[in-house]
Design a protein that fits this description.
- With 314 residues, the protein is α+β, with helices and mostly antiparallel strands.
- Helix content is 37%, strand content 21%.
- The protein has 7 helices and 13 strands.
- The strands form 2 sheets. Strands 2, 3, 4, 5, 6, 7, 8, 9, 10 and 11 form a 10-stranded mixed beta sheet that branches. It has a 3-stranded mixed beta sheet with strand order 1-12-13.
- Helix 4 crosses helix 5.
Length: 314
Amino acid sequence: MQKDPTPTKVVKNGIVVSVKDQKLALLRNGKAVRSYDISTSKYGVGSRSGSYKTPRGVHAVASKVGSGQPKGMVFESCRPTGKVIRPNTPGHDQIVSRVMQLNGLESGNRNSFSRRIYIHGTAEESKIGTPASYGCIRMRSDDVVELYELVARGDMVTIEDCSLATYLKAEKDPRMPIVRADGSVVMPASADMAVQDVSMMASAASGSDEEAMVRKAIADDTPVAELPAKTKAGSKARSAGSSPGRKTAGSRQLASSRSSSSKSRTKAASSRKGASSKALVKTSSRKGSSVKPKLVSRKSSLAASRSSKSRSRG
């Protein structure tokens, strides 16, 4: 038995057409409030022009035609002809009663409007419940008149291969993308919050190796009891030390140790700096004592300066 496909996104308010069940359901807040038997294409499902197949995917109601017309009114090119026929009149397969034209909103079904894909009443009501159309979604006259009054232009219509039960189950899945009233597709708030929680947890726990082990345990679903004893003890110590307005003996000892260590490092640096300065003074003293100053007269100094300037210009 072939597995029932799962929809990739859901419409919370609008219409879902199940090709598998040959049913149409009106949805309000993700729940079916009306359900009708229908007929989709006898040629199967597809969007190629001239194929006479029913297109998959998300659509919108582009126009509504037939307000105030009697049931059984025949329409041609979405216009009432003035002719009314009874259901299942032999030799007649016309569009009757009401017409809702669909506009495809996805890359694979954007030609639905030019293909004239409708939800409409049919004169051949005896074939409802089986694939019998040339691409449109056919309904009984009583049903299409009722549906016509319950939907508005712009309402979402999704056509799916799966059963109606599978689609309604997907409506309850919090991870399922949702088609908004304007046709855009968004993830539900719960999924966004889950992603946000994961990123916050990662940034908050970006510290020691122990915290990395805790993050890995959470990601792997490892129970806390299975973590190394050192990791659990370290986590408890950090939790106790982080309580506002309270300092444990361990935290005071750690602060004292850090202060002493800092003073020791400062003292050692000062000592090294002083020793270096003394060594430099001593070296300069030795160098100065070994070199005797050379006395130069003002006349010879002036002559040397003139000689240097003449070389720089040459």
